[in-house]
Design brief:
- With 332 residues, the protein is α/β, with parallel strands linked by helices.
- The protein folds into three domains: 3-135, Rossmann fold; 140-200, Helicase, Ruva Protein, domain 3 (Orthogonal Bundle), CATH 1.10.8; 213-330, Zinc Finger, Delta Prime, domain 3, CATH 1.20.272.
- Helix content is 57%, strand content 9%.
- The protein is built from 16 helices and five strands.
- A five-stranded parallel β-sheet has the order 2-3-4-1-5, sandwiched between helices.
- Strand 2, helix 2 (44-52) and strand 3 (61-66) form a beta-alpha-beta unit.
- Helix 6 (140-153) crosses helix 7 (160-170).
- The chain is globular.
């Protein structure tokens, strides 16, 4: 049984994982034969011992490793220049690449991870000995088709104008789209979802839209960020409100980045971030893994400068926000 690697969008990867486990015939294995390791805490010897053991009174042993390849990537942009850390991680796990072809056919080994760079050393090492699937969130027409298929899977129908409206508001955040489409399917039970229905649910979608705007600013997607900032203004959100949302997210990012660096378990993240929302925890930890603490501090300082410039009347609010987005991009 070969090893598998699923990486990409956080909505698509776990769903594909469930499909793959069923396809491999490992969906009903006993708990004693199920193992899930957190990549940052996994040790080569521990993993190899699990994978080389024969299943107990079962056909297969299922081993899922979550986030291992991400540990070999930059914790921000500082490692892009190349550091001994990346090569050190690859060297530590070199035995895994050599051992996979020798593992028992009863072992189903699956690596799951976020989107990975082509130069990830563990990706390069595992590609020859694993079945690799990159699962990216769709965009454009592909996103429209995805929305339509999701709605139909929920037993409903949606019109083209409604698809355009909700994708404009939410973008390709598949978690939020799925949640909003579930609400719309229930709201419009027995009839096609229309653009007016999306507008009826706009309070929920606007909240998602605010988060997407903050996400786009931090991740350096200027086109998306500027479009959503303008839309937020049209929806009645003033510059101080938007700045407050960005400030809150940067604060949460700093807390999450610190927790990740300290190896805090995911189960404790809600307490660390001071929130009861699974959505906020998931989105914030995903973002934090893509940014180093110095990057977050730099962004926070720029945000404070922008806020001060607006309050002292040195800059018109909307222009200040647009320049802030430009600075975010220039820093990348």
């Amino acid at each position: 049984m070969p090893a598998y690697l699923l990486h990409g969008d956080s909505f698509l990867v776990p769903r594909r994982l469930n499909e793959l486990i069923s396809e491999a015939g490992a969906a009903d294995v006993l708990d004693a034969n199920r193992h899930r390791l957190i990549g940052s805490q996994a040790k080569p010897g521990e993993l190899l011992s699990m994978c080389n053991a024969l299943p107990f009174m079962d056909d297969y042993r299922l081993v899922v490793v979550d986030g291992l390849l991400g540990t070999a990537e930059s914790q921000g942009r500082s490692r892009r220049r190349g550091s001994s850390t990346d090569s050190g991680v690859a060297a530590q796990w070199q035995s895994l690449g050599d051992a996979i072809p020798q593992m028992p056919g009863t072992t189903v080994l699956v690596f799951i991870d976020r989107a990975l760079g082509a130069n990830n050393p563990l990706l390069r090492m595992l590609r020859p000995v694993s079945q690799v699937e990159e699962l990216s969130a769709p965009a454009g027409e592909a996103l429209a088709r995805w929305v339509k298929s999701v709605v139909e899977a929920k037993g409903a129908n949606i019109g083209p104008a409604a698809i355009r409206s909700i994708t404009d508001l939410v973008g390709n955040d598949l978690w939020t789209l799925d949640q909003e489409l579930e609400k719309l399917a229930l709201y419009c039970s027995g009839r096609e979802i229309q653009d007016t229905d999306v507008n009826e649910m706009v309070s929920q979608v606007r909240e998602a839209n605010i988060f997407v705007a903050v996400d786009a600013m931090i991740d350096g997607r200027p086109g998306v960020a500027l479009r959503l900032l303008h839309q937020l203004n049209e929806d009645g959100k003033e510059a101080p409100q938007i700045i407050g949302m960005v400030e809150r997210q940067l604060r949460l990012l700093a807390l999450a980045r610190d927790a990740i660096d300290r190896g805090v378990p995911q189960s404790e993240m809600k307490g660390r971030l001071g929130t009861s929302s699974d959505f906020v925890v998931r989105k914030t930890t995903e973002q934090a893994r893509r940014h180093s603490m110095p990057e977050i501090v730099w962004r926070y300082n720029r945000l404070l400068e922008t806020d001060l410039a607006i309050k002292k009347g040195r800059m018109e609010p909307n222009l200040a926000l647009e320049l802030l987005v430009g600075d975010e991009v220039a820093n990348r």
